[in-house]
Specification:
Elements lengths: L2 H8 L3 H15 L1 H35 L8 H26 L5 H4 L11 H11 L5 H22 L7 H20 L6 H18 L34 H24 L9 H12 L6 H6 L4 H11 L4 H12 L2 H13 L3 H12 L7
Length: 366
């Protein structure tokens, strides 16, 4: 593996590169771009993103395990409370902003979009400006925020023709199969993914819920071994449990999925700025808890997940374009978060200041 490729993987650069290509393509050759995006959107959004959500679920499983970074219920519930408060604040700001214009009835259904927090981007920014002990809390808060938004979206905007009875039955079969395999000590992750995952996908599809969530209820049943490791860091190469091997096998394809997701969904015609654009961007920023300003700024980047939510909440058209632009604008919050952290000497900047003072020669007066 080349050094450049490894750097791109470690810094989650495939996603913004895909988004940048999409923006250039959509604004220079819109006809060919939107034809391409329409043709691949199902495979990327409904199938490929199942892998991304599975990898994020794996992080929650690892963090909540007895040897994880957020093991106690107290820590978990703190993240849940922070995520719930952040979502509520963002939604209130979004709806309040819409009341200032005359497009409230059209844009109001998009309020779940402001619950979105890009997990990969949050981790990348937090790892550069926040202290290590804050990162698990931030990432779990992002995951919980996304879970809240997903639940609301799935209940409000079911997809396709609904066959709730058959879908629920299939979902229960998928989970039961995963439980049986776990109790039978099936140590390969493939049966969990190919059998339980496939059944779960069809079950969610029939119930009108987004099939990209198919592996979320399955991943917690993959066998794992006890170990102590840093959050969002690869398991040791010698780890042979199913959860670790699942991560090692699908980590790099997962980045390809993120590239394709950015390429498929981030192609926004830049002249479509409107009320929805500013409502999403302002709500994502202003709705977070102000008493933890750097943490709030870091957790305000919606990007990937906000794009995903927008495609569910709005049909193709000008309103969706406005929403996507708002999601893209939230990327700028990461720059603001870095500037504020440096100004306040918070997180890593505080640690660096302490190290500089410790290494400075001591002046002794005569």
């Amino acid at each position: 593996m080349t050094r450049a490729f490894r750097f791109a993987i470690d810094h989650y650069l495939f996603l913004p590169v895909g988004a940048a290509v999409a923006l250039s393509w959509a604004n220079n050759w819109p006809a060919s771009y939107f034809t391409f995006a329409h043709r691949v959107s199902f495979m990327v959004n409904d199938v490929g993103m199942a892998l991304f959500f599975a990898l994020m679920t794996r992080e929650v499983v690892e963090a909540a395990a007895p040897d994880g970074a957020l093991h106690t219920w107290r820590r978990l519930m703190l993240a849940v409370a922070a995520a719930s408060g952040g979502c509520l604040g963002a939604v209130l700001v979004y709806l309040g902003y819409l009341q200032m214009g005359d497009e409230s009835s059209v844009l109001a259904p998009g309020w779940p979009i402001v619950c979105a927090t890009d997990v990969a981007f949050t981790y990348f920014v937090a790892s550069n400006i926040c202290s290590q002990r804050v990162i698990p809390f931030l990432v779990l808060t992002a995951i919980v925020s996304n879970a809240i938004g997903l639940v609301v979206l799935e209940l409000r905007y079911p997809i396709g023709e609904i066959h709730a009875g058959a879908g629920i039955a299939l979902s229960m079969v998928a989970i039961t199969a995963a439980v049986v395999m776990r109790r039978c000590d099936v140590r390969s992750f493939w049966p969990y993914v190919l059998v339980s995952g496939a059944i779960s996908w069809f079950g969610l599809f029939l119930t009108g819920l987004h099939p990209a969530l198919a592996l979320v209820p399955i991943v917690p049943f993959l066998p794992r071994t006890s170990r102590t490791r840093r959050f969002m860091v690869d398991a040791p190469l010698g780890a042979r449990d199913a959860l670790s091997r699942f991560h090692r096998t699908w980590k790099y394809p997962g980045h390809l999925v993120l590239f394709m997701f950015g390429l498929t969904n981030a192609g926004v015609v830049l002249r479509g700025v409107g009320t929805g654009t500013w409502a999403i961007a302002i709500a994502a920023l202003a709705g977070k808890p102000a008493d933890m300003i750097v943490v709030a700024l870091v957790s305000s980047t919606g990007f990937t997940v906000a794009l995903f939510f927008a495609t569910v909440a709005f049909p193709v058209g000008p309103v969706l374009n406005e929403a996507k632009l708002g999601a893209l604008l939230t990327i700028g919050v990461s720059v603001l978060a870095t500037a504020v952290a440096k100004l306040l000497r918070a997180g890593r900047f505080a640690e660096r200041a302490v190290r500089r003072r410790a290494s400075a020669p001591e002046y002794v007066g005569v």
